Structures are given as C-alpha cells and as structure tokens.
Amino acid sequence: MPEAGFTVNVQNVSGDTLNAAKEASGLPGDLWACHTASVSGYTVEGHVPVSEITRLLNERPAALGIATPGMPTGSPGMENGDELEAYDVMLVNLDGGAEVYASYPGS
Predict the structure, then answer these.
(1) Side by side, which strands form the sheet with 42-46?
(2) What digits encode the pLDDT tens for the residues 28-76?
(3) Reduced to 3 states, what is the DSSP secondary structure of residue 63?
(4) How far is CA 97 from each of CA 7, 29, 60, 107, rounded to the nearest angstrom?
(5) pTM value surpassing 0.85
(6) Is residue 93 within a helix (H) or strand (E), and if so which, with residue range?
(7) Are 104 and 75 in contact (CB under 8 A)?
(8) What's the rounded Cα separation, in Å, for the pair 43 and 37?
C-alpha cells in the first residue's frame, strides 16, 4: 500500500477488538478475512489488490466497502511462487448484500 502512495497506520489488535471492528463495519461475516482497514469512509476487508481499492476511491459507489474473503493464494500478501487461486473481490452494498466487483483467475 505505501508503494501505491497510501499512508498506512497499522494497529495490531486482539481478536476481540478486531472482531468488534469487523462487526461495526457492517460487512457480512462470510466476507471476513484476516485484515480489516478503513479507507476514506469505506471498509477494505482481506487481501484486496490495490487496483481495486484505487478503483473504489475513484468511483465512490454507495457501499460499505470491498472484501476478498479468506486468504486466496496469489492475492496480495499471499503470493506463493506461480500458484494462483481464483478469487473475487466483492462490493458490499449499504444493505449488506454483495456483488462481484472484480474477478481474478487461477492458474
């Protein structure tokens, strides 16, 4: 994220504190992952590519945020050689419903 020009403020918190932040975000539990961030009023959950975060900030949809559920191999921070697991980045609407925002193919 810093390489893409974002200022990052990392807070290592307990599981209870992290889960409270996830619950407060309004994102459904089935979209949760290991990391939760707040970016310009949106929640970014999991290993979301910076290109999708930039797109979100440029488009400014009426949404809670975006999420990459789980920890798919090959997503940012989950690289493992040439191995790529297919995954979707989900846009989470204000009502908590989700739709595919971007798809990344597997190898």
Answers:
(1) 36-39, 42-46, 63-68, 87-93, 98-104
(2) 999 998 889 999 999 999 999 999 999 999 999 999 999 999 898 889 8
(3) strand
(4) 29, 12, 17, 29
(5) yes
(6) strand 87-93
(7) yes
(8) 6
